[in-house]
Amino acid sequence: MNVACDIELQRKLTPGPDETLVFDAPKSLVDTPMHFCPGCQHGLIHRIVARTLDDMGLQERAIAVGSVGCSVFVYRYISMDCVEAPHGRATAVATGVKRARPGNFVYTFQGDGDLAAIGTAEAIHAANRGERISVIFVNNTTYGMTGGQMAPTTLLGQKTTTCVKGRERETAGAPIRMAELMAQLDGVAFSARVAVNSVKNIRKAEKAVRRAFEVQEQGLGFGFVEFLSTCPTNWRLDPIKANERVETEMIPCFPLGVFKEMGE
Fold first, then answer.
1. Which of 32, 85, 117, 133 is deepest in the core (most CB within 10 A)?
2. pLDDT per residue as tens digits for the range 184-209
3. What value, to the nearest 5°, has the Cα angle with vertex 74 and ends 94 and 65?
4. Which domains does the chain have, with CATH numbers?
């Protein structure tokens, strides 16, 4: 029964003689169901990264470095060589990989609790040194995998398992804006913040990822793209409300745009 259904679905998805295929899955993306929570945008970000790797012909010499958190599943869904780093240490591991194999394309896939908290020092110093790596930073304002604790990017007033009444500026400070912080460092060649809550923003995100990859290929320095992303489970919102929250609460706090771009 399932086989018959699969065959029928494939038949419906195969373009007919009068049809043109305008979209397909990236070759670098593993053809398997994703485990992410309904409404989580990690999967969409994976697709953007995989598509960019395909378009730039980087898959065969790309090495991904992931760390602890929901970002760790980059190994499962993007088909290429990968290295697992301890929590927060992905940029340090990527530095070693790139220096040992300068001919390879090296990128990290990290979350906000990982890069902006536990790995702040590693990320900032790698950026300041101008390491020829690219960083994909997923900001969903919480520790998504490890229990929904407050992260450095948690919004003021946002409730988490470690600030049940909401984040307070007086005790926890304001959310850290990593894209702007990175843009101030001399070694950074490209720094941008994007979102994937609308088709328009997805198109801009695709361009930003490509540019972050290009500056590595051109030897210009460190490339950084911050993605604003949903976390419906820890936000305790349904997927639609979570997507709306990106527009109404996250973007006003974390403005979208390119904060630094070096030319060739």
1. 133
2. 999 999 999 999 999 999 999 999 99
3. 5
4. 36-261 (3.40.50.970)
